[in-house]
Every structure is written in structure tokens, then in C-alpha cells.
Amino acid sequence: MGYGNHTVITEFVLQGLSQSWELQLFLSALLLLFYIIILPGNFLIIVTIRNDPHLGSPMFFFLAHLACLDICYSCVTPPKIMMNVFTGHRTISYPGCMLQIFFIHFLGAAEMCLLIAMGIDRYVAICHPLRYTTVMTKAVCWAMVVSSWTAGFMHSMIQVILIVPLPFCGPNELDNLFCDITQIIKLACTDTYMLEFIMFFNSGVGIATCFILLLISYGALLAKVRTGSSHGKNKASSTCITHIIIIFIMFGPAIYVYCRPFQDFPFDKVVAFFHTVVFPLMNPMIYTLRNKEIKVAMGRLLKKYITLVRK
Prior knowledge:
The protein has one domain (about 10-310): Rhodopsin 7-helix transmembrane proteins (Rhopdopsin 7-helix transmembrane proteins, Up-down Bundle). The longest helix is centred in the C-terminal third of the chain and has 35 residues, at about 195-225. It contains 11 helices and 5 strands, in the order βββαααβαααβααααα. By secondary structure, it is mainly α. α1 packs antiparallel against α3, α4 (about 95-125) runs antiparallel to α6 and α4 (about 95-125) runs antiparallel to α9 (about 235-260).
């Protein structure tokens, strides 16, 4: 199938994190070990929250959905990365590349919107505690979750709709571990200046705006907690700090990747690796390690399971 005097690309070659096969094999084995340890932990968070009546507040409802999103997000690129290394193949088909781009931005944007929903939940809980149960009802929580998924879907569809019509007829090597818009656009056989501007506005400006607003809101909440009464101060402060840590982990690498011109820098692949592979598995774990209620609930669940097994 031709395009002008060139051949239309049907697959892309992924360069990976390093040209050294031994190093790539080591990283893939480390990633597999990381999955075996951390991924079940995210499932345990979901099961614990769903089965423990003491964790019925909206905060834990959102955390369960955050863990679900992170599980889905971490299953988009790592399996292909490991398969390519273990099999010795470095290619990905054009449809597979488009699917990776779609799900990376779909799940990533949905997670960022969910973090905003969690920020709203903390605002109501800290600033309007007497109205918390009437404002943050089950219907409102579900509406926020559905809105997060919808916003993520719309954001991702914009990306894919703009990329799919592009002609790819020249080089097909991506200096990355997976497909993403910052790499794909540069391979198109056409002028992409306006498209890069649209992508920058859709991804970069949106990410930076959400990040700044979340930091301002949590900063204000921390200030209010510190100046408020001592009752529940430490717990509220710890929760806000945990959310801020997760925000930095989620938004920091994304800002580095998308909030600048689509140019290559030496550190890009390392940031992309941690952003799409490592950090999504860590977010709920960080939250869990800083939350006594979830740790106690997990202990009860494990004791119950051990008791059933012994019987």
C-alpha cells in the first residue's frame, strides 16, 4: 500500500530503554518482579474496601477506583515491553500503537480527574464537616467517578482522532518503550506544527492547570487544618499530605513529558518508564501505608481468610 513514492508504515520499531539487550532483560525481569509483588496489593486494596463496612466513606470509595484505574493503566504498556524483550522482537503494529496511545491518555486523564474528585471530597470533609454526609452522597460519588471516566475518554478520543489521519510513510523507529503522541507526530509525512500546538494545549496546558489548582486547594486545606481545632487535625493533615504526594507522582512526569515542545531529551525515556510503568502501581500503596484504617482492615481480612483456610 503506497503513499506517494513511499510505503505506508504498518508497524513501528520500539528502541526501548537501552540498546543493551542484557540491561533491557534485567529491567524487564525487575518489572516482572515488581508486578508480582505490587499488583496483587492493588487488588487487595479493592477487595478490602469493598468487603469492610468500616471503609464505606467516599474517601475509600474513590481510593478503590484509583487502585482500579492504576491496575488498568499499568497493564497498557508493560506487558508489551516485557514481551518484546523476552521474545527479542521490538515491533508494534500500527493498530496496536494507536490502542496504546488511546488507553494511555484515556486512563491517565481519568485518573487525574479522579484526583480532582478526591480533592473536592477532602474540601467538603474539612471545610463543611456538618454537611459532608448530605453533600457527598453515593449518587454524587458515582457521578464524579463516571465523569472522570467520561472526561478521560473524551480527552483520549481527541488525541486519536487527530493522529489517525496522519500519513506515516518514512522512518518507523520510535526512540521509546511504547507509543505516545510525542514520538508518533514527529514521524508523520506532513507538517504537524498546528497539530503539536493542539496536542500541547489538550495535554500539557490541561495537566499543568489541574496540577496548579490541586496544589493551591490542598495548600489552603492544610492551612485551614493547621489553624483549626485539634480534633482530627493530625488525621486530616496526614490525608492531605498523602494526596499531595500522589499528585506530585502523577502530575510531575506528565508535566515534564507534555508541557514542552515535542523534542527529544536524554532523560525522556527514563521519565516515561517511571510514569507509565512504576508510579501507577505505587500510588494506592503509598496511600495505604499512610492510612491506619486500611492497614487494620487488611489485617482483619487476612485473618479471616487464614481462618477459613485452616477450617
